[in-house]
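Its record is retained below.
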Amino acid sequence: MEVKVLDINSTIYGMPPESLMENAGKAVAEIALREFDFKKCIVLCGSGNNGGDGFVAARYLSKKRDVEVIMAKEPKSALARKNFRRAKREGITVHRYRKGMDCIRDGELIIDAMLGIGISGELREPYSSISEEVNRSDAKVISVDIPTGIGSKSAIKPDATVTFHAVKDGMNEENSGKIFVADIGIPEEASEYVGPGDMVYYPLPEKNSHKGENGIVLTIGGGPYTGAPALAAMAALRTGADLSFVFTPERAWRTIASFSPDIIAMPLEGDFLNERHVPTIKDFLSRVDAVAIGPGLGNMEETKKAATAIIDECLSLGKSIVVDADAIQVFGERKCNGNVVITPHAGEFRELTDITLPPELEDRKRIVMEEARKRRCTILLKGNVDIISNGKSIKLNHIHNEGMTVGGTGDVLSGIVASLLSKGVPAYNAARMGAFINGMAGNIAFDEKGYGMTASDLLEKIPEALIHHIL
């Protein structure tokens, strides 16, 4: 999926997928001619963009060597079909694979461009038969991006692999041969910053799904403040959760309940969250898929103790959780199992870590990654440039505007991320998508409202941001 992310994000930085495919195929051909001595080459193409790379490579190779293409299946992706037609126009012999066909056809070099990233499990026909024949042959083999079937018993075992942009997870010389990393022109920003490509991880509902199967979110907040939990709860619904519950003290309950009939607000006795509410909340956790805790809670000592107990219970249950606002100061250095997103601004980050962040972006990135690694969680540091890290990977976000300094936009972000977690999206992907959706909704609202924009305006624009980038 990360390949799709890069392809889509590259487009917004001036490098469309068509250009990336052209560069990829050209790189394969150049490395083949440089590294191997051969007169005839067989290019094996699959139906997707990996096969499209193969058609491009065949065009470049045909200018200097005898080339034939064998298609494991008919090209399906638009770019693969386009390059298939172009290869045919340039006179390259193209065959459709049939069972029992001799795939080698005296080829001294075989280009494996059948299956790329995203395929798992053992190879199916016709790929398994083709792979078996290739592995039996004496021909040299180059795989495109990754070997077909990598990780399976039936995988192609190449002499070399030309991979693009970076070595892919799981690749080594034993399963990929000599690895060549080709720069195909992916802009640095496309991999460094979130963009529309990150939305490939948004899980679309099944047509026959029922209420509750697309995410149930619980927001725990309010007491001294009423707007924050309501904004988070509504943001969860606007991002596609089926149900959005709020536990809030009676003092805030009526206001939150009247914010929208779509929110299911449940009162807790008293004016502030305290330890006597914890058993009620614990009993309810089994009914929800994700929890957002913190919006509008306040920082009374009793509230901190209650928030601590709830966070510990969520962690013990393995519940997906967003820790925001007033709950951040009690999180400390708790160790998570990866399904926690903490969303601090610089001041809250200091409360979390005792670290005052420096102004330099590179230093901030290093610190955020280290703190996320220590806690085995994802940190989404909000700022002029958002920094998102799970301790292993890191992304930045600059999709937002100065109007989003208005109160409540962070609560909207928490609800968006909680909604994505409730759908089973891993924490790091939920955080990077959440930053993008929140920023896009803010930009759409700013175009209409300017500096008079409010957090409620973001809520109304979340569906528009989703429609533009996932449908």
About this structure: The CA atoms of residues 108 and 168 lie 27 Å apart. The chain has two domains: 2-192, 205-470. Residues 2-192 form a domain with the Rossmann fold fold (CATH 3.40.50.10260).
